[in-house]
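The instructor's notes for this session suggest beginning with a concrete chain rather than abstract definitions. Hand out the sequence below and ask the class to guess, before any prediction is shown, which regions might be ordered.
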Amino acid sequence: MIRVARTEGWEAPEWHERGFTIKNAKKTDVYSYGKLCGCILFGDQLSGKPPFDMKATLGMLEPINHLDNIDHSSLEKFFTLSLEVEPSLRTGDVGSLTRALSLALRSDQGYLALFIL
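After discussion, reveal the predicted structure:
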């Protein structure tokens, strides 16, 4: 069993002090990474407790000038894979996350993709 550190506000909803298998520990890290990326892109809009309304949050990106060419479907996939409240439905595969985020931020946001990835 692996003990996962806790930082309030960043921990996965299933966090507890008893320890996790490696597979489930990865999923808690994926959740924290998804939340970090969300905070970079959306600021305070993604703060608070899950579940997050990603469709509404992604809709806020359209008027933001420096993010106007983002692929919303890939970004939605990224956040669906990473911020799923139910751990059994959340990915533990960081490769699939980075691919989804890379596709979402590909166009002229290369600098942002490099910063987040």
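Then share the key points. The two ends are 28 Å apart (CA to CA). The chain has one domain: 22-116.
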